[in-house]
Amino acid sequence: EKGTYPHYMLKEIDEQPAVLRKIIQAYQDDNGNLTIDPAILTALKEADRLYIIAAGTSYHAGLVGKEYFEKIAGIPVEVHISSEFGYNIPLLSKKPLFIFITQSGETADSRQVLVKVKKMGYPSLTVTNVQGSTLSREADHTLLLHAGPEIAVASTKAYVAQIAVLAIAATVFAESQALPVGFDLTQELGIVANAVQAMVDAKDEMEQIARDFLEVTRNAFFIGRQLDYHVSLEGALKLKEISYIQAEGFAGGELKHGTIALIEEGTPVFALATQEEVSLNIRGNVKEVVARGANPCIISMAGLDEEGDTLVIPHVHPLLTPLVSVVPLQLISYYASLHRGCDVDKPRNLAKSVTVE
Ligand code: F6R
Fold first, then answer.
1. Looking at ligand 1, which atom is closest to the CA of residue 107?
2. Where in this chain does the record put each SIS domain (predicted)?
3. Could you tell me what percent of the chain has a pLDDT over 70?
């Protein structure tokens, strides 16, 4: 039930701090330590490479998950679009573990890959919001998102939940192998939940950004580097699917290799600047587009912010910034859709769960 909310999407965006807290609880043992099914830890230990398979927003969460498994858990990861992978299976490592990320657990493109890799005898894990869903039943293992039902076609809280659960899996695995993690994930996710709350409480500001940058435009660009690049892909997808504004996410350094030709006077460019290592680089990329007339909306993180930034998100652990920076992008898309009179919860041509290949 959407209760007093005008749309499910807004309700689901608002639920995100609670979803994060729910996930922490769901993955805590009696002593308050994060934990996951020991059988999954064993599967991760036996694997020499993880293959993350997903579509759409879940694929974007997978790109972030790759960073966690590689940087925290020390396991190499490939992330693949399910509709491509099944028909062009790459040369696999000796001991692959397949991880399917799927909110619904019913996506046909992802299921056909599971069917194929099962036939090949490989182990599998489904990360899903729906217990008892097809991919959950058919995979060897399941990690649940605990996000509650997601009704709006545009995925919001499931993306945040996927990233949080992948962070937990990577961290718990690293701890189980006595690898140095260097932070307390429970505590850091608590800080993230508060930061997400601050973002959803700033709806008026997000609505104003939608007015300032997206009221009349035909197109928009999203740029970022490292983790911010992955989030820029998700920001562009959200905007496209519910507002019908043509939007693309780009690696900050890549725009100038062709696409910068599309920048005109007033073209909105959303730039994410939450990663210290590439902070100067992304600022340089913003200058490149501004010199061609772009209207830049800079979303930075406290500590890396500069005068003139459009929005500053609260400081969180650098690996967890996607959980926070995506929230303003979701809200900005929501208001752009609303102002354009689009059907926010049921955009044209889309279904919540895509059960055909
Ligand atoms: C975007 C969106 C889709 C889904 C994709 C995968 O907002 O909802 O891109 O993310 O169809 O769906 P699941 O995660 O159910 O496999």
1. 16
2. 40-179, 209-347
3. 100
Q: Identity (one letter) of the amino acid at 183? A: F
User: Ligand 1: which of 142, 234, 354, 356 to mutate, most ligand atoms within 8 Å of CB?
Assistant: 354
Is the CB of 154 inside a 6 Å radius of any atom of ligand 1?
A: yes
* Structure token digits, residue 135: 């991919």
> How much of the chain, in percent, has pLDDT values that exceed 90?
96
193 C-alpha vs ligand 1 centroid, how far in Å? 23
Q: Ligand 1 centroid vs 103 CA: distance in angstroms?
A: 7
H or E segment to which residue 248 belongs: strand 246-251
ipTM > 0.90 for the complex? yes
Is the pLDDT assigned to residue 329 strictly greater than 90?
yes
155 Cα–ligand 1 center, Å: 6
Q: Give the C-alpha separation, 178 to 45, whole Å.
A: 12
Distances in whole angstroms, Cα of residue 104 to Cα of each of 2, 126, 158, 259, 340: 19, 11, 9, 34, 28
What is the pTM for the complete model shown?
0.98
The Cα–Cα gap between 199 and 209 comes to: 13
Residue 355 pLDDT exceeds 90: no
Catalytic residues, by residue number, are 352
Strand partners, 52: 79, 99
Rounded CA separation 55/44 (Å) = 22
